[in-house]
Amino acid sequence: MGINFSNGSSTSGLVADLWRSTTDHQGNTTPLPNWERADTSNQGYIVGMSQSSGIFTFPKTGIYLVQLHMLIFLNNSTTKSQRCGANIQTTTDNANYVGAATGDVHFGGGGYGTNIDTSATASCAAMFDITDTSNHKVRFTFGAGQGHEKVAGNSSHNRTWAVFTRMGDT
């Protein structure tokens, strides 16, 4: 039995939304762009987030749990090892962003000249007290090692995704 999502209408104060990156991005990327609300396989949302150019805006005040999951690929014959990061950044003044959470992944290669073709996931989560929906925002960044790494996106299924859940009142 599936969940019956209201797709945008709720009187309970609940916010639950799932977004996914739709395209691959190579190298350091701030903010990570090209997001869409997950819209396949009966996925839905209850009072959703807004997003523009990789910046997410909260629909109402409250305490939110934000979860980020990135699928990261490395395919490079010249890289010995790399460290990459999935990052959640927040602003309270609509301008200056600070790091709130980071999920690192480390690729250990076989040495220079050895073909490295691998993937890993990096995840992180943070809670935010949103008291001002016009100035409190969130964005995601991808920190690549030497720039050969890429974060995977797809518009049909969730490879790199974020979940926003309103936990309660502020």
Characterization of the model:
The protein has 170 residues and is an all-beta fold. The radius of gyration is 17 Å and the shape is globular. The strands form two sheets. Strands 1, 2, 3, 6, 9, 11 and 12 form a seven-stranded antiparallel sheet that branches. A five-stranded antiparallel sheet has the order 4-5-10-7-8, with no helix packed on it. It starts with 15 loop residues before the first strand and ends with a strand. The protein has a single domain, classed as Jelly Rolls. It has no helices and twelve strands.
Topology summary:
Layout: E1 16-21, E2 25-26, E3 35-37, E4 50-52, E5 55-57, E6 62-76, E7 81-91, E8 98-108, E9 116-130, E10 137-143, E11 150-151, E12 161-168
Antiparallel strand pairs: 1-3, 1-12, 2-11, 4-5, 5-10, 6-9, 6-11, 6-12, 7-8, 7-10
Structure keywords:
disordered N terminus; 170 residues; mainly beta; Jelly Rolls; 51% strand; five-stranded antiparallel β-sheet
In short:
By secondary structure, the chain is an all-beta fold. Helix content is 0%, strand content 51%. It has a single domain, classed as Jelly Rolls.
What structural class do helix, strand and pairing data support?
A: mainly beta
CATH architecture level-2 label: Sandwich
In CATH terms, what is the fold-level topology? Answer: Jelly Rolls
**Helical residue percent?**
under 10%
The number of helical runs is 0
Order of helices and strands: EEEEEEEEEEEE
